[in-house]
Amino acid sequence: MTGKAVAAGKSAVGKAGGGAKGPEELRRQIERTRGELGETVAALASKADVKGRAMARAADLRDKAGAMTVQLRSSAAQASHVVQERAARAGHVVQDKATQAGHVVQDKATQAGHVVQDRASQAGHTVQDRAAHAGNMVEYKVPGPVRTAVRSGLRHPRPVLVVGAAVAAVVAAGMMRRRHH
Q: SS3 for 135?
């Protein structure tokens, strides 16, 4: 991940955890964080042109995406509590509306996370299947030294799954980005 992408991710998490002034600001923070996460994934994908590099980056992305999901959920929960405290001072009516808005935002963020995870899994399986097929084709049409490398990849399919997950994350982020624009 580039330094700029790391800084953007940390900035987004810091802003989201800083306490929203209302449900609308909380929504904007979550959307901004999603956009920055999408840009981070896109930056990773653009640099993943070498197989070994792609595998290492995909593993890193998977770990960081899991940590980011936990941080985003935690930040959303913290922001929801801040909104609830301010609403209690303003009255029970405002408190009820803020609580409902917080739950809706949290539910949508959770749903979006599940959609991305499902699409990443599907894309990973597709990439693994295609890679296995390509490996079989290469095995019969390529010189001996290259054939040895392909056989090694077939014996160790986990890196192929990691690359597939990275590709799926990029595809899912692009689809979500298009949906929001």
A: helix
